[in-house]
Write a structure and sequence with these properties.
By secondary structure, this protein is an alpha+beta fold. It contains 18 helices and 33 strands. The structure holds one RNA strand.
Length: 639
RNA sequence: GCUGCCGUGGCUCAGCAGGUAGAGCAACGCACUCGUAAUGCGUAGGUCACCAGUUCAAUUCUGGUCGGUAGCUCCA
């Protein structure tokens, strides 16, 4: 979370008329401001907003975040109470609210199954009907421990024992059910009327895989049945755009048992991937990058030198060749270092920006794999920037702007996180402090709001991560900017400075798409498979009314191909309605229907996937429209 | 990797209280030659993920392996 000092309270009226008392802190002298909390009508809420270039704050979203937290947290207590009523021997662990609902971790020998949900739900509904009041009370530490020991709740006892000696320990009581809890809570159990338990899964006590695995029951509640219906509807809609489902249906990629985590790209998927790379190369060339390529496999010595062997050898693929160990690269940086070392560098050449579309392999845990989002072989749009210390801030800003521009092309929203020094870091503290403060300063000068993840940095340096939002509210790390003082040292990189002496350059690792596979997965979901015209694997489908017009259709196809438009033709002996239906399901942006009328008038009847039939025009006319969309990379997805 | 659930033709799924399987879509063939989201008829396609065990008999029961999946853990 953002660390705040000196909160400044003010009343602000937003464009939509919402009045809110907000706590605002300027995190630098510039424009960067961050709203961390606000209250509205006496309720604590969360706000999301954007700072415009003129310094005015534009209201984006009003979300009763805290209110939902309380609502769902109380719901989790109701869940726990219901479970204790049915299985009195269940031991309670923790039960917080989450972004969408809540869960409760319990230790119970009986294995819960989906069929138990109905029983638990109806018990919860009973508790809601009883409208039990939630009463808060406090106990000194020792008494609190004794209290929970008597209740035979070992997990609660452990939690209390971890609290400081002088801590005031609070409990919440509803009817005969009492739970250790800091609160706050609803006044009574009567509000969460619409209840749905969602799933059950294993979870380690305190998130540590060495601890016992508990049963975690997920649920969600609402005040009104209609809200629950809407939520379920939303989940179902989101499932329809799951990239794994669409990837199969639209023949973009597939997975095989022969290569778990190694995606196969089909012709249509590759069209999109290539289009992304084409865009990427344009952007990077303009930004002064050069492109290189380094080997897929390099000697183990190199990975020992880089420090990756020590940190990640269990996740690296290795192979023995001529009695020597080789590692399939899990990262591109050592290769990049070697390219740098291949020649002498002057301070005048800096910054040097060497980009690489690098295929990397990492042996991720089997349980972590998830479609294209988490794979074992992926393509990074990597780049290493070598520079002078005084260039750091500007270069970080350049990269952040480049990433921002690229994401905007796709209409993505994102948030930024800054990850700082981990426990198993390399190098000395002084360099780390400098690296972290450079990243912070760059972010602040850019006016970007960010979250700090203490101790979450890479072993060689702190990093700024860009997280994209997907269609069901999850976020995925894509872009990253990592500052690195270590690799240049380990690989003994040098440049000749103005003083004629040799110096050590500073390096940035960065990716914009991150993993092209992951980015592609998010794209599929973002557009629900209906890609903007410039990205569509098939941009036009020519549909002859009957096979009498196949020749004319072929002529139209050739005309479009001459313009480099991706075009397919459907000459099957099917009815036009059927051909249109299939082209619609393939989400092709343009369908050209051709029959007698068109063949005679040398034209095509254009159908857009969203608008339907838009009338007849010449091939040249419609081609110009399409070519312009491709050229400007217009986001014309109907999503 | 851990826990739960799942694994039947290319896809979506049905079936089997144990007697070696069925539908729709897709594919292929024939007829129809059609004007903006599914023309009709026919054909072919599966050692029911894999390996053991129980049994006269296993796709069905049991165990293991592999893979998928929801979470947990991890994510350079």
């Amino acid at each position: 979370m953002i660390k705040l000092t000196l909160p400044d309270m003010s009343i602000r009226e937003y464009e939509n008329g919402t009045k809110a008392i907000e706590v605002v802190k300027s995190i630098s002298e510039g424009l960067a401001r961050s709203v961390v909390g606000a209250s509205f009508n006496g309720k604590t809420i969360g706000l999301q907003e954007q700072i415009n270039e003129d310094g005015n704050i534009k209201f984006l979203k009003f979300e009763d975040k805290e209110g939902k937290d309380v609502f769902w947290h109380t719901s989790s207590h109701i869940l726990a109470q219901a479970i204790k009523r049915i299985w009195p021997e269940a031991k309670l662990a923790i039960g917080p609210s989450i972004d969408n609902g809540f869960y409760y971790d319990i230790d119970l020998d009986y294995r819960l199954v989906q069929e138990d949900f109905e029983k638990i739900e109806s018990e919860m509904k009973k508790i809601v009907k009883e409208g039990l009041e939630l009463e808060r009370f406090e106990l000194p530490r020792e008494e609190a421990i004794k209290f929970m020991e008597e209740k035979e709740e070992p997990y609660k006892v452990e939690l209390i024992k971890d609290l400081p000696a002088d801590a005031i320990i609070s409990f919440y009581k509803q009817g005969d059910f009492v739970d250790l809890c800091a609160g706050p809570h609803l006044e009574s159990t009567k509000k969460p009327k619409a209840i749905k338990l969602l799933s059950i899964a294993g979870a380690y006590w305190r998130g540590n895989e060495k601890n016992k695995m508990l049963q975690r029951v997920y649920g969600i509640t609402f005040e009104k049945a209609k809200e629950l219906e809407e939520y379920i509807h939303m989940i179902e809609e989101a499932k329809k755009r799951d990239h794994r489902k669409l990837g199969k249906e639209l023949e973009l990629f597939f997975m095989s048992e022969e290569g778990p985590g190694f995606p196969f790209f089909l012709p249509k998927g590759i069209e999109i991937k290539n289009e992304l790379l084409k865009y990427w190369r344009e952007v990077h060339k303009k930004a002064g990058y050069v492109e290189i390529e380094t080997p897929l496999m390099l000697s183990r010595h190199l990975w020992e030198n880089s420090g990756h062997w020590d940190h990640y050898k269990d996740n690296m693929y290795t192979v023995k060749i001529d009695e020597e160990d080789f590692c399939v690269k899990p990262m591109n940086c050592p290769g990049g270092m070697m390219v740098y070392k291949n020649s002498m560098h002057s301070y005048k050449d800096f910054p040097i920006k060497a980009a690489e579309i690098g295929r990397v392999h990492r042996h991720e845990l089997s349980g972590a794999l998830h479609g294209l989002m988490r794979v074992r072989a992926f393509t990074q749009d990597d780049a290493h920037i070598f520079m002078l210390p005084e260039q750091i801030k500007d270069e970080i800003k350049n990269v952040a702007n480049l990433i921002d521009g690229m994401y905007k092309t796709f209409g993505f929203t994102y948030h930024v996180e800054l990850s700082t020094r981990p426990e198993d870091f390399l190098g000395d503290l002084k360099d780390w402090d400098m690296a972290e403060s450079s990243l912070k300063e760059a972010l602040e000068e850019l006016g970007l709001n960010y979250i700090i993840n203490e101790g979450d940095g890479a072993f060689y340096g702190p990093k700024i991560d860009f997280h994209l939002n997907d269609c069901i509210g999850r976020t995925w790390q894509c872009g990253t900017i990592q500052l690195d003082y270590q690799m240049p040292q380990r690989f003994d990189l040098e440049y000749v400075g103005a003083d004629g002496q040799k110096h050590r350059p500073i390096m940035i690792h960065r990716v914009a798409f991150g993993s092209i596979e992951r980015f592609f997965g998010i794209l599929i979901e973002q557009f629900a498979g209906a890609f903007p015209t410039w990205l569509s694997p098939v941009q036009v489908k020519v549909l002859p009314i009957s096979d009498k017009f196949n020749d004319y259709a072929k002529k139209v196809k050739e005309e479009l191909e001459a313009f480099n438009i991706r075009v397919e033709i459907d000459t099957r002996a099917e009815k036009i309605g059927y051909k249109i239906r299939e082209a619609q399901l393939e989400k092709v942006p343009y369908m050209f229907v051709v029959g007698e009328k068109e063949a005679e008038g040398n034209s095509v009847s254009v159908r857009e996937r969203q608008k339907g039939d838009i009338g007849s025009m010449s091939t040249k006319e419609i081609s110009d429209i399409i070519l312009n969309k491709i050229k400007t990379r217009e986001n014309d997805s109907p999503q």
